[in-house]
Amino acid sequence: SAKNSGKNKFSIFDESMLFEFNEKIRIEQLIRSALDNEWFFIEYQPIIDKSTGETSSFEALIRMSEPKLMPNQFISIAERTGLIIQIGRWVIKEVIEQLKNWKINGYNLKPIAVNLSPKQIYDGNLVEFLESQLKINNIDPSLIEIEITENVLIENGDSNIVTLQRIKDLGITISLDDFGTNYSSLNYLTYMPVDKIKIDKNFKDKFINFKNNQFLEGIVFLAHTLNLKVVIEGVEDEDEYSILKKGESDFLQGYLFSRPLKKEDATKFLTKN
Ligand code: C2E
Ligand code: MG
Ligand code: MG
Ligand code: MG
């Protein structure tokens, strides 16, 4: 049929495009296998309360074990193929079950942040799914945070904002991730239903030594005028820490404090009564 011949017009690709095309199909198949065979797992990275130096929450970061792939190698393909919906449900379920597990074993729980892509926000069942998973496992919504990027505004922005507000109404905290990359219009902050911004590592790297760090601190100040908390990501060394300590940001995250950890190691960051 005409439809099939269209699909098979490989002559329009050059060799590198064909390679890329095959690579995408290979990764798509790996994602399907990983979903079927439980080759995904979560690492938990501590996020530090700057005022106390203590871990206040974790960020859940997905990993593929078989073969070992990092999110940057498969998340964008998962988004394009729609497989991100299944991945996202798996992550939400896994994280809420982990909280339940810690709870049953007597640990004092700390919130866990889950990254969600725009397609997941647009998925009509997300809010119900979150709500039911929390209920089934008897976990308070305040123990879940979600991290989104400004990309949720690119397509279906109005609808996505309504969904985010519904998530917030459940008692779930929302963070705007990767702040400072892309456009990051300050204007977005005035109408997006978010509680926190996470300043991206690249932005922090670029500005921490610029104008005596006053520029970065200016962003922190603006966020605070909107009642938003501020996390600074990718803190890797003591010099940066000593600069940031003098500033007004609320939370810090980075290899200096801890790398993302297997669940057994993350447990060591929790206390029991
Ligand atoms: P992100 O949400 O901005 O996560 C922060 C990334 O920075 C993570 O990379 C983390 O391991 C890394 N990181 C943390 N501290 C440091 C540091 O001090 N130095 C450096 N160089 N890097 C640091 P990771 O785990 O490779 O994840 C990359 C991105 O993949 C995430 O960026 C997020 O956008 C996406 N992602 C990860 N897990 C998920 C998921 O479950 N679902 C979705 N939709 N996206 C995910
Ligand atoms: Mg994140
Ligand atoms: Mg981030
Ligand atoms: Mg990032």
UniProtKB/TrEMBL annotation:
Name this polypeptide is given: Diguanylate cyclase (GGDEF)-like protein
Native organism: Serpentinicella alkaliphila
Superkingdom of origin organism: Bacteria
Subcellular location: Membrane
Segments forming domain EAL: 24-273
